[in-house]
Amino acid sequence: MPAEPEEPAAPEEPTTPTTPTTPTTPTTPTTKGKTGKAAAVPSLPSLPGDEVHIELPPQIGEELSNAIEEAVDDAAEQKVARYHVQASTWFKSFVTLLVLALFGIKALMGSKKRAEAETQNANATAEREAMQRQLSEARMQMMQAQVEPHFLFNTLASVEHLIETDPPRASAMQRSLIRYLRAVLPQMRDNALITNLGREADMVEAYLNLLKMRMEERLIVEFDVPDGLRTAAFPPMMLQSMVENAIKHGLEAKPEGGVLKVRAEVAHNKLRVIVSDTGLGFGAVPSNGTGLGLTNIRERLKLLHGEQGQLLIAANSPSGVIATIEVPYALAKTTLEKKPH
Q1: Same domain, yes or no, for 269 and 243?
Q2: Is residue 20 part of a domain?
Q3: Could you give the angle at which helices 197-215 and 149-165 cross, rounded to 10 degrees?
Q4: Where are the alpha helices (DSSP H) in 149-196?
Q5: For position 334, what pLDDT does the model report?
Q6: pTM of the predicted structure, to 2 decimals
Q7: Are 336 and 192 spatial neighbours (Cβ–Cβ below 8 Å)?
Q8: What is the C-alpha to C-alpha distance for residues 337 and 341, in angstroms, rounded to an integer?
Q9: Could you give the 3-state DSSP secondary structure of residue 341?
């Protein structure tokens, strides 16, 4: 009995991928030929992820290679240009900071040099002022140590003469001389640069009392130093010098004598001590005395008070001289400034 023909086999279904992300390649379907063997089916293109080798024509490959090289060169040039810009910016910033630093160092060095120069100038000024002060103190000490020999000798001669002719008057002159020496000797021993006006006024009053005993009615004295100004600071021996000059150059050489006025006042925060006389005036009689001169007074005032201290000389009416000393008004210190030993 003839055999029954076999039914053709059903084609295999493709397997379902296990994961959605990695699909599996479907199995290649096979067909059976007349001999019953499976026939091969052409393979499909590979899925993305596998290597793909595409053969390009030589001309297209060369153009593509040139384009890639040009792109690389352009990118390199742009990168180099950006680097140059950044380097230029950094270099400019560095140069700017360097210049600023140099200016700062120069300014600091200049300030240091100026400070050193100012310090040297200050030291030189201090040394110069110290030397001037020492010179001033030496001069003033010499001036304060001077007592007019002519005045003392004349006074002692007058006392000796009055002892024989008028003993009571000689006794009074002797007492006045003792008072004067008691007033002037502390000034001679003291190295004070500044004293008070009251101390100077007491010494000058004692001096004028002696002169009045010698000159008698030829000398009229008017003394006006307010009590409120006796504590004012005043250079020592200056008032004595002014009164001596007025007597010697003005009144003593005038046969009829005259009036001597001593007055003190404060104006514009300055102490003014004024000595005026109605004598012959300066220059009328040649001077041969050894007392303190007006030049020394000016030098002492300049050393003590600078431009704020001055000696003013003017003519008096109808005759004579007005001498004025101006110094800054201040109260004398309780402990007078003394020269260090």
Answers
A1: yes
A2: no
A3: 50
A4: 149-165, 167-189
A5: 52
A6: 0.55
A7: yes
A8: 12
A9: coil
Q: Looking at residue 285, what DSSP letter applies?
A: S
Residue with tokens 């210049």: 99
Domain of residue 85: give its range.
Answer: 73-141
Coil, helix or strand for 177? helix
We report the CATH number of the domain holding residue 192 as 3.30.565.10
267, two tokens: 């104006």
Burial class (CB in 10 A: 0-12, 13-18, 19+), 235: buried
Report which of residues 324 and 108 the model is more confident about.
324
Q: Mark which of 86, 107, 141 sits at the end of a domain.
A: 141
**Number of domains making up the chain:** 2
Token digits for 3?
């055999």
What distance in Å separates the CA atoms of residue 207 and residue 230, rounded to the nearest whole number? Answer: 18
- CA-CA distance, 157 to 141, in Å (whole number)? 28
Q: How confident is the model at residue 51 (pLDDT cuts 50, 70, 90)?
A: low
Domain-ending residue, one of 141, 171, 187: 141
Higher-confidence residue of 237 and 260: namely 260
**Structure confidence at residue 37 (pLDDT):** 47
Euclidean distance between CA atoms 291 and 151, whole angstroms: 10
- Is residue 24's pLDDT more than 60? no
Q: Which residue has the higher pLDDT, 140 or 167?
A: 167
Q: Indicate if 228 and 116 belong to the same structural domain.
A: no
